[in-house]
Amino acid sequence: MDSAAEDDFREFVVGRSPALLVTAYLLTGDHGLAEDLLQVTLMKAHRHWARVRSSGNPEAYVRRALANQRISWWRRRRVAESDAPLPDIPAGDDSGRVELRDELWRALRQLPPRTRAVLVLRYWEDVSEAETAEILGCSVGSVKSQGSRGLRRLRAVLAETESDGATAPASGGRLDDRA
Amino acid sequence: MIEPDVEHELRDVFRSRAAVIPAPIEPYQELRRRERRRQHRAVLGSALAVVLVIAGAIGAGLALRPDGVRSTAPALTVVGDTRGSLAGDRALLLEAGRVALATKLTGRDAVDPQSLRVPYAEQVDGYTVVLVVGRGLHEDYAAVFLGRAPGERALTVAGGTSFYSGQTTAAGRADGRGFLDPVQVLSVVTIGDRGFGVAIFPAGSRATVSRTTTLQANCTVAAGQAVPLPLTDGAAMFPVAPGGNPQVRVTDGRGRPLLARPAGAVGGGPADLTEEQAAAQVVASMRGDAPADQVAGVAGFARVDSEQVPVAERPIRYVGIWAGRLPGRPGIAALMGAQYASGAIALNGLISAENGQGYTGWSVNECLPAGQPNTLLLGQRLFGDPTQPVIMIGPPGAASARVSFSTGAPVPVRLTGGGGLLAHPGTLVRVSFFDRDGQQLGSALPSPGPFVELPH
């Protein structure tokens, strides 16, 4: 890679890594895994930077690579993945909503990676169904069904949490640990 | 139709989680370091043979099933390729593959079960020795498993090594081919109280081993006596004396070099210094402006890092050269040395990690000839990375330096203890050192040659 391209790549990494790391985290649910995922994806982008840059939207390219890398990664890494503890979230929220979000987050982490990727792309990246289908290399119908299944699962968690009372201790005891 | 409340809550969850993710610190530099580490591992073949557990930590972390419980055998794709006297023991090979998966020996980078192979199974001193290799997402892995005791079939991990599978290796093979295809492994293990090297290469390979390779006074490596290593079908185990670090050279059937590096050290010799003793020697002679507590911290790694030097002897003492504060961030860069019997000093550099936890080595590629401890003239970018500071270290009497870049006027730098660090962009061309009277002491070019000339 020539120095101009290297400079361009460096500028991209420095400028876009914070946002890309967030997406990686939402895709993986684990900070360490997210860093690994982002680094691996960026290294691949580096090797093909001329092509990535010529796409006209390198960030979209890398986000697509992140989602797909995550899905294929899971197939290999599922043996070693663990249920990492939840990071602390900012204080200042009422405890009921914090518990609700924790339950939803836990439920999200249980979803299959492709389903989770659909939800992250649709509701974090605000990508359309058609674009999501293109990114994940599947049909729009598949995006609709995956999204619907994922939300159905989350809706069930939501209903269960609300019926238990939002201040009830969450399963697993992690909320109690933090209190 | 999606219910709006779920969508709303989901967006809230994403927002709240995103808010707790800190921005990555210097992501580009971290990327470069990661790439370099992998290239380094690929080229050197990771001499970091992790001689872990033989008797002490038996069974720790292993998810072995009790006898009589049927296990799910992993898919071992090339069982027929196994070499060694136990190659025909299919049950043992399957068990080794299963234990390799159960141990998660690669941390988060799980090995693909479909890639597992067992290239070697042997009986040594009554112990069962089995080598398992596999492909992870980032790297290829090799692990040596041992019987828990002589005559026992239950296996425990005894050592391991890794290669980045996506880089050109020392053998010059193409991207995407690690040591799995064909299998190339050089590692060391301790069996009972004896050390062994484990060498597995393509059938038809030829190898020699030298146990007397030394660093000479002029910083060249004396070959010592190289004796043929009897590779049977490309596989061999050979004794490694405590403290020894035998040099192994392997060529393929047509004489092309496959590998030339130390097998790795096993244990420590009786004359070895402890880490504390080595650190004390480093601290005592260190120059520069680094805080004493940070110098003491970095000095503890002197003994470990000297094991990278490609000779079969161990250092006789350790020296501190120079350590200084890093510009623009906490931490220090330090240059240390390991002195060998000839008097030559092999240098190695360490820099504080970005997160403040631990240290990272940078390739110094320098050796000080015997009797010339004060002749060092070093000027280079840390890690060779254009975003990192320039480090300059001259003789103790060097009071200032002038750093030349490809553009712009030379930058003068006042030195402390003969050295300094400079954060400055541009392509480094030369560092010139001056004494207190302005007399030039010499210059250093930023591209050091090879560390030492290996014998051919």
Keywords:
heterodimer; A: 179 residues; mainly alpha; 9 helices; elongated; disordered C terminus; B: 456 residues; alpha+beta; 4-stranded antiparallel sheet
Give the N-terminus to C-terminus distance of chain B in angstroms. Answer: 73 Å
Number of helices, where a helix is a run of at least 4 consecutive DSSP H or I residues of chain B: 6
Radius of gyration of chain A (Å): 18 Å
**Overall strand count of chain A:** 0
Number of helices of chain A: 9
Task: Describe the largest sheet of chain A.
Answer: none
**Mean pLDDT over the full residue set of chain B:** 74
- Major β-sheet annotation of chain B: 5 strands, antiparallel
Rounded to the nearest angstrom, the radius of gyration of chain B is 25 Å
Helix content of chain B: 10-25%
Mean pLDDT of chain A: 71
Q: Identify the most extensive interface between protein chains.
A: A-B, 49 and 39 residues
Shape of chain A: elongated
Question: Can you walk through the features of this model?
Answer:
- The complex is a heterodimer of chains A (179) and B (456).
- Chain A is 75% helix and 0% strand.
- Chain A has 179 residues and is mainly alpha-helical.
- The C terminus of chain A is likely disordered.
- In chain B, 15% of the residues lie in helices and 32% in strands.
- In chain B, a hairpin with a 5-residue loop joins strand 12 and strand 13.
- In chain B, helix 4 packs across helix 5.
- The longest helix of chain B is centred in the first third of the chain and has 18 residues.
- Chains A and B meet through helix 1, helix 2, helix 4, helix 5 and helix 6 of A and helix 1 and helix 2 of B.
